[in-house]
Amino acid sequence: MHFLDFEKPIAELEGKIAELRHLSDSDGLNIAEEVSRLQTRVDRDLRSAYAKLTPWQKTQVARHPERPHAVDYIKALIQDFMPMAGDRVFGEDMAIVGGLGRFQGRSVMVIGIEKGHDTDTRIKHNFGMARPEGYRKTRRLMELADRFGVPVITLVDTAGAYPGVDAEERGQAEAIARCIETCLNITVPLVSVIIGEGGSGGAIALATGNVVLMLEHAIYSVISPEGCASILWRDGEQAKTAAEALRITAQDLERLGIIDGIIPEPVGGAHRAPETTFNAVRDAIEGHLAQLVRLESHQLRARRRDKFLQMGRGGLSI
Fold it and tell me: CB-based contacts of 169: which residues, under 8 Å, 6+ apart?
């Protein structure tokens, strides 16, 4: 397992546990009591460390390379998933994974931003940074869901939209704006879950939902801490300070009214117990969808629009 900087004491203890278990297997020694004692210390230290994470440490957890990604959630939560490709304008963008499937017996359109797990898949999915065709594909799928009265679930995990020259040439800003517009216009339930990083317009393009949820250690920000630090202080080392100032944690954003709820993670983060995380996300989505499907289409759209207009009117206080 990959350990983060603040997890080094825990890594040392788990290393000792692994050594003891190896000795037990090879020499037939009975060291269960010592292993149990060390495991108790690991569990205690994990709970202590994760109970008081700083915004910068939460950023590290949100970016953990072993954290479950969109395709993992789709595989665990969506039955009969049928992927759909292309924006019908330019081409396919593998950073956006979307299609029809069944969630708890209900037909849904699920759309996720996928980062990839290893070098090959990260390159394939462009590290979760979508180009204009990805956002246009998202629009197409949302409009298709709207046409057939199918709820939309989005899974957000991106450092931001791709900033390359080719993306700008093809209208990146316009594509993001149109995607946000589509989120506001559709008349079916839209539930968004930020499962890792929610970076800038690349995230809000998929997260302008009736309900916006965040995993406990996910982050959501207008700019990355490193980007903010490079602009304000011209020093990337100030990223920790920027993370504090940006109010990027789920706890801060719930208090500010930006998100609608926090989904708890297992002690040590989602990567330590993915199945537990999948179940928590499933229950949260199911609960909110059950309420949203009772509303009329015009109510869904009006409430969604009013929610975000209220943010823009200064209805929130920092």
Answer: none
Which CATH number does the domain 59-312 belong to among 2.40.50.100, 3.30.479.30, 3.90.226.10, 3.90.850.10? 3.90.226.10
Q: Is 88 left (phi over 0), alpha (psi -120 to 50) or beta?
A: left
Whole-model pTM?
0.91
Q: Which two tokens stand for residue 95?
A: 């950073």
- H helix count then E strand count, the chain: 14, 8
262's tokens: 């926090």
- DSSP conformation letters of 148-206: HT--EEEEEEES-S---HHHHHTTHHHHHHHHHHHHHH--S-EEEEEEEEEEHHHHHTT
User: 54: which 2 tokens?
Assistant: 């700083």
Q: What digits encode the pLDDT tens for the residues 230-245?
A: 999 998 889 999 999 9
Q: Which residues pair with 213 in a beta bridge?
A: 193, 261
